[in-house]
């Protein structure tokens, strides 16, 4: 795809640049479809992550409370 000097002089370079409307619409449609698939999957993952974090913190709290009661039963 080498340009000839004649093409440069005649201004034909500008007519060969760019994308067609069909190409742009195809890319935009593909991106839209991928976004429609990815967004719901990611939002469900965030909820599951938050739930797992709360469960982990609850376990740590219970374990810490158990140790405290084991060391000082009068606090129970």
Strand content bin: under 5%
Number of strands: 0
Radius of gyration: 31 Å
Count of domain modules: 1
Residue-averaged pLDDT: 80
Q: Which class best fits the helix and strand makeup?
A: mainly alpha
- Globally, the shape reads rod-shaped
Q: What is the terminal separation in angstroms?
A: 83 Å
Count of DSSP helices? 3
Task: Provide the helix percentage.
Answer: over 70%
What characterizes the major β-sheet?
A: none
Low-confidence stretches: none
The H/E string reads HHH
Question: Could you write a compact summary of the structure shown?
Answer:
The protein is mainly α.
How would the blueprint of this fold be written?
Elements: H1 5-10, H2 12-15, H3 21-71
Can you offer a commentary on this structure?
The longest helix has 51 residues, at 21-71. The chain is 80% helix and 0% strand. The protein has 76 residues and is an all-alpha fold. The mean pLDDT is 80. It has helices spanning 5-10, 12-15, 21-71. It has one domain.
